[in-house]
Every structure is written in C-alpha cells, then in structure tokens.
C-alpha cells in the first residue's frame, strides 16, 4: 500500500528545500481577504496607510486622513485598525489616535460610524471604511453623536462649532479639554 501522507510530506519537504526554507505560517481567511482588500485600495489623495509592525502584520495598520475641505481642512488625523481573523464577518476595530473635537469621535478615540457597527456586512471592505471615516470629516453628523457637547454646538451654532474645531486643531482648549495641535 502506498502511504500517500508520506509521499505528500516528502513533496512538501522537497519544495521547502528548493525555496530556501520553510514556508510562512498559513494565513487565515481573514488575512487572505484583508490582503486582497489592501492590494485593491483606491485611497483619496488625502489619505495614506502605514504598517507600523511591518508588512508581515497586515491585521494591524494605521490610516492617516487629511481632509481637503470642510471644518477639518488642514488637519491630520491618525486611525488605528485592528482586523479580526474572522474578517470580513466582523468589522475592523477602528480608533482615532488623534484627540479631536468632533461629534462622531469621542475624546477616547472611539468612532461612531454605522458601517463599523450595526450596518457592517461582509461585502464591505477596508476601502469603504476609510471613505466612511473621510466622510465624517467632510460632513460631521450631529444626529448620531459620541461627543454630545460637540454635536449640540454643531446643531445649534455652526459658527461656534467651526471656531472650536479651529482652536482644537491649532492646539488649545475647548471648554476644559486640551487638544494637541494636529495641523
């Protein structure tokens, strides 16, 4: 009887030796999908992606957004993405590392974006999330806030909101909260 497992194992050993060593660890379905998403990214010119842990760790990366219009024009905002091995069946975890005065981002960096919560579907991808984040800066939404104070000011006094955003982005206090410069 031919021992198929032994034959297959021998073929794998020969392939490893021919390629100069052992192959990398097996990628999860989430990693494979994320790799596809990243290779197909079409970012706006005001956005960039970096891999602080190197290209071997695709599941953790950072996205920088520099809005070119709206209240946040001229600011630079850094987001961290943590992607689950079961992606795309679970939305990526996204946090804003830049402290920002924004109705949809709280002071701890949590982001209120429907596609990161109840409206996530496996057909969505990283490109969609990045465009959603970019849209938060061009069209902040006071109707679904995480920062209720910022939302109330945006709703009731857009000029004051703009002034608060400028003060925060320049590095200063809005109320009792200090914001580091992000321009």
UniProtKB/TrEMBL annotation:
Keywords: ATP-binding, Nucleotide-binding, Transferase, Ubl conjugation pathway. Residues 29-174 form the UBC core domain. InterPro entries: UBC, UBQ-conjugating_AS, UBQ-conjugating_enzyme/RWD. The keyword Protein biosynthesis does not apply. The active site is at 112 (glycyl thioester intermediate). GO terms for molecular function: ATP binding; NEDD8 transferase activity. CDD domains: UBCc_UBE2F_UBE2M. SMART domains: UBCc (SM00212). It holds the Pfam family UQ_con. Coiled coil: none annotated. Transmembrane segments: none annotated. Belongs to the ubiquitin-conjugating enzyme family. This is NEDD8-conjugating enzyme Ubc12. It comes from Ziziphus jujuba (Chinese jujube).
């Amino acid at each position: 009887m031919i021992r198929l497992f032994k034959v297959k194992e021998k073929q794998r050993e020969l392939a490893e030796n021919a390629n100069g060593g052992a192959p990398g660890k097996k990628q999860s379905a989430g990693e494979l999908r994320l790799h596809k998403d990243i290779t197909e990214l079409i970012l706006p010119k005001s956005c960039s992606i970096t891999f602080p842990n190197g290209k071997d760790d695709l599941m953790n990366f950072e996205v920088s957004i520099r809005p070119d219009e709206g209240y946040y024009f001229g600011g630079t905002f850094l987001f961290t993405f943590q992607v689950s091995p079961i992606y795309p069946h679970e939305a990526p975890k996204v946090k804003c590392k830049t402290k920002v005065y924004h109705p949809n981002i709280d002071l701890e960096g949590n982001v209120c974006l429907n596609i990161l919560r109840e409206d996530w579907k496996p057909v969505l991808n990283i490109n969609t999330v990045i465009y959603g984040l970019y849209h938060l800066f061009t069209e902040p939404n006071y109707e679904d806030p995480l920062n209720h104070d910022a939302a109330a000011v945006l709703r009731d006094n857009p000029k004051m909101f703009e002034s608060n955003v400028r003060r925060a982005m320049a590095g200063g206090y809005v109320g009792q909260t200090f914001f580091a410069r992000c321009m």
